[in-house]
Write a structure and sequence with these properties.
Blueprint (H helix, E strand, L loop, with lengths): L1 H7 L3 H5 L4 H19 L12 H16 L12 H8 L8 H7 L16 H5 L18 H9 L42 H7 L27 E6 L23 E3 L1 H7 L6 E6 L2 E9 L7 E5 L6 E6 L23 E3 L24 E7 L1
Parallel strand pairs: 1-5, 2-4
Antiparallel strand pairs: 1-8, 2-5, 3-4, 3-8, 6-7
Length: 371
């Protein structure tokens, strides 16, 4: 698409630099392969003295000793070639043609070179200053102070501060899930420890994360407390790229993960179809009950493509103000379609994040119930 636009504007040659799409992929991969190789050239602490300067000094000491007719102090003295070989980069990615044959590869870190953040700056802060106005680690940011000033009088006033500050996230009210459901003004009572223990007892022959159906115990009816929604990157895709390629091998399932306590309060077990709703939309996905998720929060991979189920509609409206009732007083189904593809944008606000002006899929709230 971008190439076609450049062609229409008469700058195709400058845009493509004479390379095809396949050639660009190869070029970018080989450039990353070279960066990976350079990054793997991290010396262990005991080898830190084996720098270029150290190699030259060692060689000069060897030459001086030989001039005086003496043997070097250490028979294992390194030559310039030895140092060059030891400090040579190690490729941890295969050549592009080999990658095409393999189909997939994994980047491997050098065994003796653990990743160290800001390693160059820590080693020599003068030669490798940070990308800040002062080149140093800054506790007070003049740039962020200016940004904070520009936010005065906006909904995001106070969201950006020039010093590290705790800023409360957007509340459930912004997502229309702050009020209790009708007929439950006081909210559901949490399950007792005994009831939770029964609900969380694993079924025989099931994975340890598949818990017994809480509905078969004395657990109270589904809790209506709002839950935070947090999106994370899936290993199956880059944002939404390849999100529609279902033939990807070992593709992780698109699920909503929930803490066992929250699942027990709502009668949810692993594999159940659940519906997440707020004033922005509704989506349905299978549930995964796991203690990897903190209580009060549900998580789901971001980047999945939106897919409407024309036969499915939200079972309940997301808030009291938006609720519609039938003549009998029952809650009517929401007229909006339900996303069954698991697109987290179904639930996110259109309000951008205050600093990056990005999609706020790490700050979201919903109600969750079993369908």
């Amino acid at each position: 698409m971008c190439r076609d636009l450049a062609k229409r504007w008469g700058i195709e040659a400058a845009f493509t630099e004479g390379l095809t799409e396949a050639e660009w992929i190869c070029k970018l991969y080989e450039a990353d392969r070279e960066r990976t190789a350079q990054a793997s050239r991290q010396l262990t602490p005991e080898k830190k003295h084996l720098t270029t300067g150290g190699a030259q000094a060692d060689s000069e000491q060897t030459d001086s000793a030989q001039t005086l007719g003496a043997q070097p102090a250490c028979q294992a003295q390194k030559t310039r070639d030895d140092h060059a070989a030891e400090n040579a980069p190690v490729n941890t990615l295969p050549p592009f043609e080999q990658l095409l044959e393999q189909g997939v590869c994994f980047r491997k870190d050098a065994a003796d070179a653990p990743f160290v953040a800001l390693a160059d700056w820590r080693r020599d802060p003068v030669a490798h200053p940070l990308d800040t106005p002062s080149g140093k680690a800054e506790i007070f940011s003049e740039h962020l102070a200016a940004v904070a000033e520009s936010l005065h009088g906006t909904p995001d006033e106070g969201a950006i501060t020039p010093i590290p500050t705790y800023v409360p996230e957007w509340t459930a009210a912004e997502f229309g899930v702050d009020e209790p459901e009708d007929g439950n003004e006081e909210g559901d009572q949490p399950a007792s420890e005994g009831e939770l223990a029964k609900a969380l007892k694993p079924n025989a022959g099931q994975n340890a994360r598949n818990f017994a159906n809480p509905a078969s115990t004395a657990v109270p009816r589904a809790c209506d407390q709002a839950l935070r929604v947090f999106g994370f990157h899936s290993v199956a895709r880059i944002h939404s790229s390849w999100g529609n390629v279902f033939a990807m091998p070992k593709r992780p399932p698109q699920v909503i993960s929930i803490n066992p306590a929250d699942a027990a309060a709502r009668g949810i077990r692993t594999g159940d179809l659940v519906e997440a709703t707020n004033r922005f939309g509704a989506l349905r996905l299978p549930a995964e009950v796991t203690d990897d998720v903190i209580a009060g929060t549900v998580i789901m991979p971001q980047g999945a493509w939106w897919k409407a189920d024309s036969a499915a509609f939200a079972t309940k409206a997301p808030s009291n103000q938006a609720r519609k009732r039938t003549a009998s007083g029952a809650v009517a189904a929401s007229p909006r379609p339900v996303d069954v593809g698991g697109c987290i944008n179904t639930l996110t606000s259109s309000r951008p994040s205050p600093l990056a002006f990005g999609n706020p899929q790490h700050t979201c709230w919903c109600r969750l119930r079993s369908v």
